[in-house]
UniProtKB/TrEMBL annotation:
It comes from Rhodovibrio salinarum. InterPro entries: Cys/Met-Metab_PyrdxlP-dep_enz, Cys_b_lyase_bac, PyrdxlP-dep_Trfase, PyrdxlP-dep_Trfase_major, PyrdxlP-dep_Trfase_small. It catalyses: L,L-cystathionine + H2O = L-homocysteine + pyruvate + NH4(+). Keywords: Lyase, Pyridoxal phosphate. The modification N6-(pyridoxal phosphate)lysine is found at K212. Belongs to the trans-sulfuration enzymes family. Its cofactor is pyridoxal 5'-phosphate. This is Cystathionine beta-lyase. The gene is metC.
Length: 396
C-alpha cells in the first residue's frame, strides 16, 4: 500500500501484504526454498539476469516472496528505492559498508557508532585495505568537509549515537558529503523509519537492526538496508555476491512485528518519557541522555528532524560508583533484565562503557543503558527506585 492518503498505522497494517496473490491469506506464507525449478533451459539461463526483477523467485539465496513482502514494506516506509533483508543488524552494517568501500578507499565513522560496527571497521575493513578514521559526532558540515580526503568514499552516521545518544545534524552532514561525491550510511535502528527517514534527509543507505523494534518480541534476528536510487543496484549486487539473506521464518516474524510497531513505539515513547523525567530528579543521576527531553544538548535537532523517540536511553551516575555497587543495583531488579539487544517488550538495564578515539568521553560516574519496555511505567519506576537504594547501600 503506497497510497499516501492513509496514515502511518493504517499503512503498517497493509504494507507487505497481497492476499490476492496468496489465495486470500491475510499474511503471506513462509517460503522455505533453495532450488526453484525452471520450466525450460532458456528460462533457467535467464534466471541470473532476472534476479533484480521484483516478484521474480529464481533461487532461494536471491530471496522468496516472503522476503519481497518485507523488503517492499520497508522500502515504502524508508522512502527508498530498494531494501535487502539480512540475518542481523551487524550484517546489515557490513553489507552497507562493503557496498561502498574497497581497497584503497577511506571511510569516516562517527565516534559514537555501535561497538560491533567499530570492531568490524577496525579489524576487517582495515585488513581489506580500507583506511578508517573517526570523527566527532557533533561535527558540522564544514568540519566534516575538512575531514574528507580525495579517497574518502563513505561517511557513517548514527543518530542518536550508541550509549551516549548524541543527535547528529544529518541533513547538514549528508549535504556536505554529497557535495564531495561521498556516500552516507546511517544506523537508523533507534528511531525506525516511523520516527526518522534518513533518505528523505539526503542519506544514501539506511541500516536497521530489525531484530529490535521491527521484530519487537526478542525472538528473531534480522537486519535490513534500504538504498536510495543511486545505490539500489549496487546494494543488491553486493548481497547476491556475499550470499547474506535472512531466513524466511525470521523475515516472517519481522512482517508480523511490523503490524504493531506503531502502537508499540508510541507506548515505548510515552513510558520512556515518564521514566526519564523521574530519573532527572534522582540525586544518584547526573544526566539523562534521552533526545526527547528538552534538557538534551541536541534536543533542537531531534525536534526538527524526528517524529518521535523510542524507549532506549542512558543515564550517567552522579559519582564514580564502584563496579560492585553498580552490580548490586543491576543484579537484583524484578523487572529490568540484564541482556544484550533491546527493542522487545521487555525492559533492560546494562552497564555501558562508551569507547572513544576521536573525542574524549568524560563523565562524573558510570553509564547505565536502559530500554523501557511495555510494562507499566509506574512498576518500572518502583523497580528503579529499589535499585537506587541498593546502589546507595553498596556504596556505603
Amino acid at each position: 500500500m503506497s497510497d499516501k492518503r492513509f496514515k502511518r498505522d493504517t499503512r503498517l497494517g497493509h504494507l507487505g501484504r497481497d492476499p490476492a496473490r496468496f489465495d486470500g491469506a491475510v499474511n503471506p506464507p513462509v517460503y522455505h526454498a533453495s532450488t526453484v525449478i525452471a520450466p525450460d533451459t532458456a528460462t533457467f539461463k535467464a534466471s541470473g539476469r532476472r534476479r533484480f526483477e521484483k516478484g521474480e523467485t529464481v533461487y532461494g539465496r536471491f530471496g522468496t516472496p516472503t522476503h519481497q513482502m518485507l523488503e517492499d514494506a520497508l522500502s515504502e516506509l524508508e522512502g527508498g528505492a530498494d531494501t535487502v533483508a539480512l540475518g542481523n543488524g551487524l550484517q546489515a552494517v557490513v553489507v552497507a559498508l562493503l557496498t561502498v568501500a574497497k581497497a584503497g578507499d577511506h571511510v569516516l565513522l562517527a565516534d559514537s557508532v555501535y561497538a560491533p560496527t567499530r570492531k568490524f571497521a577496525d579489524q576487517m575493513l582495515t585488513s581489506f585495505g580500507v583506511e578508517v578514521d573517526y570523527y566527532d559526532p557533533l561535527i558540522d558540515g564544514a568540519g566534516l568537509d575538512a575531514r574528507i580526503r580525495a579517497n574518502t568514499v563513505a561517511v557513517v552516521l548514527e543518530s542518536p549515537g550508541s550509549s551516549t545518544f548524541e543527535v547528529q545534524d544529518v541533513p547538514a552532514l549528508a549535504a556536505a558529503a554529497k557535495a564531495r561525491g561521498v556516500a552516507t550510511i546511517i544506523d537508523n535502528t533507534w528511531a525506525t523509519p516511523l520516527f526518522f527517514r534518513p533518505i528523505e534527509h539526503g542519506v544514501d543507505l539506511s541500516v536497521q537492526a530489525a531484530t529490535k523494534y521491527i521484530v519487537g518480541h526478542a525472538d528473531a534476528m534480522l537486519g535490513a538496508v534500504t538504498a536510495s536510487d543511486a545505490w539500489a543496484n549496487r546494494l543488491r549486487e553486493t548481497v547476491y555476491t556475499m550470499g547474506g539473506f535472512a531466513g524466511p521464518d525470521d523475515v516472517y516474524l519481522g512482517l508480523r512485528g511490523l503490524r504493531t510497531m506503531g502502537v508499540r513505539l508510541e507506548r515505548h515513547q510515552a513510558s520512556a518519557l515518564k521514566v526519564a523525567t523521574w530519573l532527572q530528579e534522582r540525586p544518584e543521576v547526573a544526566e539523562v541522555r534521552y533526545p526527547a527531553l528538552p534538557e538534551h544538548p541536541q534536543h533542537h535537532l531531534w525536534q526538527r528532524d524526528f517524529d518521535g523517540a523510542s524507549g532506549l536511553f542512558s543515564i550517567v551516575l552522579a559519582q564514580p560508583y564502584a563496579p560492585a555497587a553498580v552490580a548490586a543495583m543491576l543484579d537484583h531488579f524484578d523487572l529490568f533484565g540484564l541482556g544484550a539487544s533491546w527493542g522487545g517488550f521487555e525492559s533492560l538495564a546494562i552497564p555501558s562503557d562508551p569507547h572513544r578515539t576521536a573525542t574524549t568521553w568524560e563523565a562524573p560516574g558510570p553509564v547505565i543503558r536502559l530500554h523501557i519496555g511495555l510494562e507499566d511505567p509506574d512498576d518500572l519506576i518502583a523497580d528503579l527506585d529499589a535499585g537506587f537504594a541498593r546502589l546507595t547501600r553498596a556504596a556505603g
